[in-house]
Amino acid sequence: MGEVTNIVTEKLDPTSGLYVSMALFRNVKNSKVIKDKVVSGALQCSIIKPSLIAHPFQVVVAANKAAASQVFGSMVTKSIYTELLFNLSISKNISQSLMKFGINESDQDILVATIHAEDASNMSEIMVQVEGQVVPLTDLQNICDFNLLRKSYKISEDELKVTSLLDSIVSRIATSDFVSH
């Protein structure tokens, strides 16, 4: 994964021509302001609850599905950013998905994700508005609530004996359109 100053950028499916960039923040003091700006459309990004993210690849898979939905005109939500949050969930309920994977106004840890053309990331303009410390994405392992994550994705102990947590999550995200988990 390409990383510059704690921003990680990954190329999505080539047919979309899009990329996803992510930055993780801790000790955020203005989560309510950031959430309000995202909801109003003033900030073009997804603000994700990092306690439900085991690895950045989980976001890349959801972003790829969101980008494909946009390209093929099959989006379920109103924007590519809410589509990303919706795709992180295995629920078909949009508002439930957005509430579960989006941040609360009091959250102090937030993961910002933008979907953009190759050289059109708006991450730097978003980063200056977040009153918090940018940390490496590897810090997700310290923030993730693995028990809550397993519960959210309905992953059993037996399943983890034969596959990794990340593989189980990614499989569920990738197949959520076709399989009821």
Automatic annotation (TrEMBL):
Keywords: Nucleus, tRNA processing. SUPFAM superfamilies: PF0523-like. GO terms for cellular component: cytosol; EKC/KEOPS complex; nucleus. Pfam families: CGI-121. It comes from the Eukaryota. InterPro entries: CGI121/TPRKB (IPR013926), CGI121/TPRKB_sf (IPR036504). One of its GO terms (biological process) is tRNA threonylcarbamoyladenosine modification. It is found in: Nucleus. Belongs to the CGI121/TPRKB family. This is EKC/KEOPS complex subunit Tprkb-like. It comes from Thrips palmi.
